Amino acid sequence: NKVIEYSPDLVEIAAGLAKISPSLVYSYKVILIDTKRFNEREALAERLEAHYFEKYFGSNLNIRLFAKHLIISNKRSAAKELNEAVTLLGSDFDFNIIIERINLKFQLGYERGCGGKVGLLGGSSCIHKKISHVKCGLLFFLG
Question: How far is C-alpha 12 from the chain's CA centre?
Fold first, then answer.
């Protein structure tokens, strides 16, 4: 494909979206081909992904990050449960309670970490060290 010849990173971008949802990568390709905005390919992928996670997992950043981790880790049953919990309880419900319940129900093995929050590393590598603009204790750990 000529497009890939000139923008080889499209393969990796599309593969990342495909891990999340086949319909997401399909929409991405259609929009790119239709609009011919190949210079904006990364930003488009980020916008589509953000929209997808907000649509299915609400506006809480912590829940959306957790959902992405579950989906990419192929824990789709847990992600479906997370979707149902957010739909039932709303985005303002305490994300720590939701994450902890999902963790226990699906035996994910995440432990409490920094600030007593459920963490994906369970150690001292708090996400605030990875995302400098986020205060410690607001987000769970990512592996």
Answer: 17
